[in-house]
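Page 47, continued from p. 46.
Same chain as before, 126 aa.
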Amino acid sequence: METSRSGSRSALALAGLLGAAGATHFAKPRQYDSIVPRRLPGKPRTWTYASGVAEVALAAAVAAPRTRGTAAKLAAVFFAAVFPANVKMAYDYRAKSPKARAIAYGRLPLQVPLILWALRVARSTR
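Result:
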């Protein structure tokens, strides 16, 4: 399995983003608990930790050339799967400060480039 130098840098950057995001689920879980959709069964903290574990695992798998292609595809699926949490956050933040609303609303379109980035990393893995 070979990747180009720029493809490897992009993959490692994606892994870094996933790892950092996953770590914040454990460092500051309360902010994630609040955006877990109420329709999900169980406690929000369980979902917060589960998604944090998933992000850290995806980060490790994207960083490793042997598992990069599959992991990057799974990262794209993960980015799509967490979109409902971003929608809930945007809805919940509609009456907050302009800065808070901008952050919440900004997360919505951000999912598209994240998904496309993960798919590019998957395609760049040979």
